[in-house]
């Protein structure tokens, strides 16, 4: 393998999982144990099992695959669910089983609340000012609170309903013309425009498509030079929008209160609960659009593929929607609590196809897990893909069976908590994704509309489920392209 290919594989691994600070301490590894000293006493601590490694690169040679999560899954199948590996000088604990993930989330939640990812210079995307890399503290808690109170507030429900209607209208137009639909592209329009309107009171179309184009480019393979280029373009675009918002805030008659308004007020208010910078505002919006969009887009595409390949699940879901929503109106987000099978379908899709299959954290302090010593500052990589397909935790783990989540919804509190800590599409614990509920809402309503209102024609008998990494997300090698056919003559226009 040529040096260029090796370097590219390392860049991909870094962009997907590590980006760990270069100051990580270099360690010598053995396959069994090491002797460590403390100021109080000396003890022999057993490290977790470690596969054979090579000088300098460590275990990188075992991970040179475009599907890193599957390489790690195979590694754990051979050597165990808790492994101590090394990529160059970065020590890593790899977790691939539900039982180990459960113990870590239950007993060490605070210890792993820091992502441990190195900021990419001053980039607005994964930079030092963003929420992705922010330590678990006041700033992170503030932004999580704002997501819950501003993006999910009842006042923004009207915006989501309007954009869902536009999504439906677009599908009807395609159906009338007998044109095929690339699900990911339609979903990207829906999520991008909705997020933009909810957070800053405007749509991407008002920027002549510049914001949408930039957001799409940010989803391409995220090597450093691309990140900085996309970051610079977002910087100019957001600065323009911030200036316009600031001018409106100074107008006495202006009554706006979107998320950008709230952040600008905090930026200019010396007595606010947390003093934020202008770059933090910009970084938040960049990460909101890039992270929020990709997750919902890829999940919806995977789910439609699974539903299409499983006609029994499709018919059961359609029957539930018809019985609850009826045939005289379009499904809305307020219907979702009354649609348990739809909720189960979304959860099952995320279990099988987590958008980000590898979760990265860092142990702030040394600890013990399953009898093995974990040194402080060790990077933790949880293979969520493997955890959610662990045969010891999930019956028929590779099968699409939404009903498994209907059974779990009737379990007790203890069983429900155990289920939560082995179900990791958005992480777990205090550092779980703050936008998870919004993603569930986007995906649930979009899937609901497509199942309620249309039959779908595909090429061939089955949709290919071959997967690949695109940027930082797990997506389909062949984008789902199908043709909508209205189920009834009644259209909700």
UniProtKB/TrEMBL annotation:
Matches recorded under Pfam families: p450 (PF00067)
Residues annotated as binding heme: 433
Topology class, membrane: Single-pass membrane protein
Superkingdom, natural source: Eukaryota
GO-annotated cellular components: membrane
Cofactor requirement: heme
Location in the cell: Membrane
Alphabetical UniProt keywords: Heme, Iron, Membrane, Metal-binding, Monooxygenase, Oxidoreductase, Transmembrane, Transmembrane helix
InterPro entries for this protein: Cyt_P450, Cyt_P450_CS, Cyt_P450_E_grp-I, Cyt_P450_sf, Plant_metabolite_P450s
GO molecular function: heme binding; iron ion binding; oxidoreductase activity, acting on paired donors, with incorporation or reduction of molecular oxygen, NAD(P)H as one donor, and incorporation of one atom of oxygen
Entry-linked PROSITE patterns: CYTOCHROME_P450 (PS00086)
Family, per entry: Belongs to the cytochrome P450 family.
PANTHER family assigned to the protein according to its UniProt record, in alphabetical order: CYTOCHROME P450 705A1-RELATED, FLAVONOID 3'-MONOOXYGENASE-RELATED
Protein name stated in the entry: Cytochrome P450
Organism per entry: Microthlaspi erraticum
């Amino acid at each position: 393998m040529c040096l260029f290919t090796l370097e590219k594989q390392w860049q991909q691994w870094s962009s997907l999982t590590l980006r760990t600070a270069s100051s990580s301490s270099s360690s010598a590894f053995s396959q069994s144990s090491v002797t460590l000293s403390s100021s109080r006493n000396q003890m022999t601590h057993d490290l977790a099992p470690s596969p054979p490694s090579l000088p300098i690169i460590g275990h990188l040679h075992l991970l040179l695959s475009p599907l890193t999560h599957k390489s790690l899954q195979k590694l754990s199948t051979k050597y165990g669910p808790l492994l101590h590996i090394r990529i160059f000088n970065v020590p890593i604990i790899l977790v691939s089983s539900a039982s180990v993930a459960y113990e870590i989330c239950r007993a060490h939640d605070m210890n792993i609340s820091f992502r441990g990812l190195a900021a990419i210079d001053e980039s607005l995307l994964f930079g030092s000012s963003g929420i992705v890399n922010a330590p678990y503290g006041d700033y992170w808690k503030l932004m999580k609170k704002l997501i819950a109170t501003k993006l999910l507030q009842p006042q923004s429900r009207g915006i989501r309903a309007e954009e869902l209607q536009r999504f439906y209208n677009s599908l009807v137009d395609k159906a009338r013309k007998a044109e095929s639909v690339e699900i990911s592209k339609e979903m990207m329009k829906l999520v991008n425009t909705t997020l933009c309107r909810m957070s800053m009171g405007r749509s991407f179309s008002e920027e002549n498509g510049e914001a949408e184009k930039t957001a799409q480019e940010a989803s391409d393979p995220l090597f450093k030079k691309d990140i900085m280029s996309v970051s610079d373009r977002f910087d100019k675009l957001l600065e323009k929008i911030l200036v316009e918002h600031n001018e409106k805030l100074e107008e006495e008659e202006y009554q706006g209160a979107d998320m950008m308004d709230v952040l600008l007020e905090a930026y200019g208010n010396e007595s606010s609960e947390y003093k934020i910078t202008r770059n933090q505002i910009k970084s938040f919006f960049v990460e909101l659009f890039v992270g929020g969009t990709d997750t919902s887009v890829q999940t919806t595409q995977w789910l439609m593929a699974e539903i299409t390949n499983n006609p029994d699940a499709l018919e059961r879901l359609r029957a539930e929607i018809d019985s609850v929503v009826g045939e005289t109106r379009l499904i809305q987000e307020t219907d979702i609590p009354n649609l348990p099978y739809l909720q189960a379908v979304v959860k099952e899709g995320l279990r099988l196809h987590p958008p980000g299959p590898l979760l990265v954290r860092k142990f702030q302090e040394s600890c013990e897990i399953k009898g093995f010593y974990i040194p402080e500052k060790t990077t933790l990589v949880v293979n969520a893909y493997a955890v959610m397909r662990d045969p010891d935790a999930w019956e028929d783990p590779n099968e699409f069976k939404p009903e498994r989540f209907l059974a779990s919804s009737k379990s007790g509190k203890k069983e429900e908590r155990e289920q939560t800590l082995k179900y990791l599409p958005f992480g777990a614990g205090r550092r779980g994704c703050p936008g998870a509920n919004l993603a569930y809402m986007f995906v649930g309503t979009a899937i609901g509309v497509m199942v309620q209102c249309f039959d779908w024609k595909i090429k061939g008998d089955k949709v290919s489920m071959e997967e690949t990494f695109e940027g930082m997300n797990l997506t389909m090698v062949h984008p789902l392209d199908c043709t909508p056919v209205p189920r009834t003559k009644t259209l909700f226009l």
